[in-house]
């Protein structure tokens, strides 16, 4: 099993989720993340019509546990957003998962997914 962690633009979150559901990915977790990368930071409104450059960018952090056979398909879905060669559009990290346990069913390994 593999854990896929992706930091993507919040605007792309639902497009990615819809594509993962079509792939048959059973579950995923996400939350809003704040961070600073190499990309341009957004301009945000302030009081009385002013604007300033934010100290960080808002992104979505998504993580998914999948079988080894599904890694390339899931990464392909996440990376297929129409932003070719754009700097600062996110990152994908892949790591091994030794075991997973479904708390309700007590199933281990890929059966828990």
Name of the CATH first level: Alpha Beta
**Residue fraction in strands:** 25-35%
| CATH topological fold name | Alpha-Beta Plaits
Neighbour order of strands in the largest sheet = 2-5-1-6
> How many discrete domains?
1
Order of helices and strands: EHEEEEHE
Measured on Cα atoms, how large is the radius of gyration?
17 Å
Q: List low-confidence stretches.
A: none
Question: What would your notes on this structure say?
Answer:
With 113 residues, this protein is α+β, with helices and mostly antiparallel strands. The protein has a single domain (2-112), classed as Alpha-Beta Plaits. 18% of the residues lie in helices and 33% in strands. It has a four-stranded antiparallel sheet, with helices on one face. Helix 1 (13-23) packs antiparallel against helix 2 (71-79). The longest helix is centred in the N-terminal third of the chain and has 11 residues, at 13-23.
Question: How are the SSEs ordered, and which strands pair?
Answer:
Blueprint: E1 2-9, H1 13-23, E2 29-35, E3 43-45, E4 51-53, E5 57-66, H2 71-79, E6 91-96
Antiparallel strand pairs: 1-5, 1-6, 2-5, 3-4
